[in-house]
Amino acid sequence: MWLPLLLGGLATPGAAQTTGSILGQVVEQGTDRPLAGVSVSVVGTTLGTTTGEDGRFVIAAVPPGERAVRAELIGYRPVVVENLVVRSTVRTELRLELQTAPVELEGVRVQAERIRLIEPEISTTHEVIRARELIALPIDEIAEAVELTPGVSEGHFRGGRIGQEIYLIDGFETKNQFEASSQGAALELPPGALEEVEVITGGFGAQYGSALSGVVSYTTRRGSTDQWEGRAAAHTDEWAPGSLWRGFTGLSLSAGGPLAFLGAGTTLYADVLAQARAEADPRARGLACLEAGDVDESVATLIRQVEARAPGLHCPAASDHLPHQRGDKLIGFARLDRPLTSNLSLVVTLLHNRDQHELYTPEHRYNSTYQLGQRTRGSLATALLDWTRNVEGHAWHVSLRSSYTHIDRYLGVVDPWTFDGRARLGALGFGSFRFLGEDFVRSPIEAQLASAGSVPGYMAPGSALGSPFGIAANGIFFTSGTPDIANYARSGVFSADLTGEHLRANGMILRSGASAKLYRVESYERTLAHLSGSTPNYARFFPAVVSGFSEARFGALDDMTISMGLRVDAFRSGVSFRADRGDFLSPVIDPAWEVSLMPRVGLSMPIPGTDGRSAVRFNFNYVSQPPDFRYFLDTAIGDSLRTDIRRQGNPQLSFERGVTYEAAASHMLSEDVGAGLTYFRKELRNLVTGSLRIGETGNPQYTTGDFGTVQGVELSLRAQLPWATVRGGYALSRALGVTSGAQNDSTADPDRAVIEYPLAFDRRHSADVALYLWQAAGMTDSPWSLTLVGSAQSGYPISRLAAGGVGADDLETARLPWSTVLDARLARDFGALPGCGGCTWRIVADGRNLLGRANIVALRRDTGGLGPAIGAVNALLDDVAPPPVPIPAEAPGYSAAADLNDNGYIEADEFRLARTAAVLDRFDPSLFYGEARQLRLGLEVKF
Amino acid sequence: MRFATFVRAAVLAAVLGTACREIDVLGESEQFAWGTGATRQLTYNLGRDGEPSWTPDGDSIYYSAEAFPGLVGERGVLLAIPAEGGTARPVFPFLHATQAGGPAYHVAPAVSPDGERVAYVDITVMAVPSMCVGEGGCGASIEPLLERGAIVVRDRDESSARAPRTHAFVFPGRAPNTGGLDRAFAYIDEFQTAGRVGFSIAWAPDGERLVFSDGIRLYLWQPDSGTPPQALPNSEYGVHPTWSPDGELIAFTRQQASDSVDVSCICGSGLPRSATRRLFINVRGELTVIRPDGSVVSQPGIGVDPAFGPDGALYASSVGRLIRIDAATGQSVPVAGGEGGYSPAPSPDGSHLAFMKQGTGGYDIWVVELTER
């Protein structure tokens, strides 16, 4: 028997991000009479309640995922609703009809609607990607799935700088507040460990702070209470031909199930992901070559000369593969859920990340021994106590949580032992990378300064001996010695928060919370590390952030839903400084607390007369976030204008702020297709900038002098057919910044004092489509599964003015070209795996950038092209004069490729030609291209 | 001495004695030139490269290079170059970084049989007061600088705790301008004018003993014994020693002074001082084979720079070409491709011969193939 169900989600900004809630009404079938006293419970949990006189109920703290809800009342046939999707941040609404049954009959099972095409009750602009999609998508990391959200492109949310978003894992904020603008998300989860990912780009509730542009909320999986189940997978491209080989091997293993010995209902879920990569960041053209068509005529002439006279010196290292990018990634996750009482539960999670790889740097391309590398280790440990009480028509939910996050990023010269001596299994290395002199770099700064020693193992970057150009490439390439920098940043954050909420069956929610984060941050930067006496820049400080919020959701005018909230954030940099750096005796200032007050209002409603097929929503939010803590220190870092100019830190920076407006409409085009249109406007101010302040000529400090506006429209489309699911989006936006020019002296040139031009991440057009077919769309009786993901986007502007390149007039036309990518994942189930009871297996083919598009992602700022200007070439050409005597064949500076007449000597004219070739080779455009084409095969086993 | 070794030594001595008598007909046996004649030039240095010496594994050749680009030690640095050709590297990089104190240079490297040590000659130009140098110009043109040499035995591994063993052998305090020159200075003079050096060192197969020449005679030395070198009887005017593979014989070149000329200089200042040197214009070498106890075995003939191959054959330079004196037959035949070669050095497996030869920019190191691999 089919019972009509109405499922709905209400925007319930839940600080208790690990759970959702179910709200609904039970009526008698045929009469629609509300039924009181109906027992409603969530199957497999201790959660349950009874309906009130109006038949309504509410259950809080429901674990997200596909759940089953049971309703029963004496005299009626029980009903079990299966596959009810409960989401952590959205309350699920359910209407149940019970059929009278004078005698006890078997209950009725019904399937819930799987995906909602429009959500008339939700005012936020968001996308939710669920576990099955994450497994089906051709992705290596969750961030790639986040990109499917309209308005999100390459980590930028609605034209914002990287770092204008926050990441939450089960409600715990993991933003790398120290260097968010360069490092993005601090911690990564394996795709298999997630129940869902929600990406919010507009109208986020009062519980979210530290974000101007977006929120990414991960909800992790919990183990099944019934049985142990798991999944093992291995993917590799080691079989692939050279043009497709990227040296990728990925292994993952996940399992979850009950731990009865720790008490009924206790579960564990664990997931381990390991990846080995010969090319950590494969680029579409590999080690690319500068061609005559890439540059202006004067440089092209030089290229043609080299090609004609010394073809062996023209791009001697060009290859399908970008070198010096070996690395590996390891992610481990575990979650323990343990009910303590019927109302109280404990959740403990542990997450550990280690991502380490070499960093390709053109100048060290021919150094076979020493390369730069980076290792990022991150750990998160959380504990959550959840208290819930569900009674007739009411639910109370209190969460007390604490966490400790540790992030440690080290950048330095990779010890050759890392690849020569480290224990490995195939391409997978077990241990951590070793870096030259890391122990010294990490030793107490006082001892380092006292010793004035160089970093052990570091050697002055030497000549280019051994490169194809021999001594002619001196000062261009370094084949001896080591790269010369060592730095690290590490931060520890202790966080605690308390949130309480009261839910009523009529849909009203009251929620309040407060949180505090205490940081310990260390930053170390050392250049010229081979030199004794070179002084590191070091800082250790203790910022703090506290916040509180309160919000209410309530209904009005029939179907209208209003949410109102107020949030207050405060931070203190913790960096004491002298008022005048040039005066040792000037007073020391302790920065005060910065405070930001943020009202937020959202409204949503179905359009009257459309029978719920159309809806509108509006949002008005004040948003703010503390600046990256790194801006408190002297550093050079890309701000929203990509100035990349080293500036003096400013511990007194205030909040970066913004106001967002949003209006949206959604409509069900048919029973299978829904579409949405959103207009947004985001006014940003107080953005950190390295530019000079208007009217100033020389103050080198970071300020919050930038402001700008981003506005645009986003179109989303969702279709669900029995055999296919389509998720698509298109965004058209414009992001304009207003600032004084980085190079402009507004005093000397008042007309150019204020310039409006595109923010660095002003992506005008972006479109993404994900097509899930057969099993990937939920068609469980098909052995095939195919997911196609395509994207097309226009290019970012090239910030040539910020680099001191050209005039503002050129800026509108200086944009990168469009890029398009098509990824696919095809799988076929083969049923039971022989020899493994209860196991099934499948073969998976996983392809990236299948069209093989080059996809320019960056260009040189000085020329706006792939190649350098002749001035830059000449500057390097003239750096080194030919040697006074010919270089004999056995001399280290000799290169057979440069000995054009093969007489055993590099003579002066040969030297000049070799140097020209070396200069051109140095300007390889490899990193200007997008992701490389890849194809992997995998085997997956479920057990 | 074991009997078998004794027999081999006796046979070899007899053979070489026969060779001595037949060496005069060397030119008539050219049709039997030894080896494939396939040569390759390993070095192109515009300065002088000389005294090649193989590492025991046969992978590299050590040699001394003059005026090598980029290294301190203008007159001689020890380099190692892959036997197949390639980039030469300093054998002891730190030595070139610490020579600011004097114009020392290094020649005649010899790698020990176990490959762990290198013996070489360290030569330091001494600042010796001269009666005439700097007074009117005549002194500078004819006065050879007095140079102080030392045999140095040093571990290849720079971090080794074993200290270098050193023995100085050239005579401090003997001024060259006292009215005549002895053979030592004549020898230096030859080196300076012809670009070759007579100081050379050879390891005994046991790796414990060395034989070297100071330009006047041969010495036996056990560098780790703590005792000074012992002069080898019957080795007067001996240079270029080489030790046979079985350790029973030592071959060398005995310098035979022939034509000489006395050069006198009256100092241009008019002061009553003069300097006279006797320059040996033509120094002829006679190959000589003795036992380590000094007993003479044979004198195979005219030639310089003898070197034993692993099969006991003796290679040398004679009449402007490289020759091979077969240990079994006593026949001497030219080495194909060895024209103009000096300082032959057979590879440990006998398949190649490294040698020095005048090239584009002075002497360079060449390798000729003796047998096809």
Describe what you observe in this structure.
The complex is a heterodimer of chains A (943) and B (373). Chain A has a 22-stranded antiparallel β-barrel. Chain A has a 5-stranded mixed β-sheet with strand order 4-3-6-7-9, with no helix packed on it. Chain A has a 5-stranded mixed β-sheet with strand order 10-15-16-13-14. Chain A has 943 residues and is mainly beta. Chain A is globular and about 110 Å long. The two termini of chain A are 33 Å apart. Chain B has 373 residues and is mostly beta strands. Helix content of chain B is 11%, strand content 41%. Chain B contains 4 helices and 26 strands. In chain B, the strands form 7 sheets. Chain B has a 4-stranded antiparallel β-sheet, with no helix packed on it. In chain B, a hairpin with a 6-residue loop joins strand 14 (238-243) and strand 15. Chain B is globular, with a radius of gyration of 20 Å. Chains A and B meet through strand 44 of A and loops of B.
From the structure above, extract its key features.
heterodimer; A: 943 residues; mainly beta; 22-stranded antiparallel β-barrel; five-stranded mixed beta sheet; 46 strands; globular; disordered N terminus; B: 373 residues; four-stranded antiparallel beta sheet; 4 helices
Morphology call of chain B: globular
Gyration radius over CA of chain A: 30 Å
**N/C terminus separation of chain B:** 34 Å
Indicate the multimeric state: heterodimer
Helix content of chain A: under 10%
The whole-number mean of residue pLDDT values of chain A reads: 86
Number of helices of chain A: 9
The biggest beta sheet of chain A is recorded as: 22 strands, antiparallel, barrel
Distance between the termini of chain A: 33 Å
The beta-strand count of chain B equals 26
Strand content of chain B: 35-45%
What's the overall average pLDDT of chain B, rounded? 74
- The neighbouring-strand order within the major sheet of chain B is 1-26-25-24
- Structural class by secondary-structure content of chain A: mainly beta
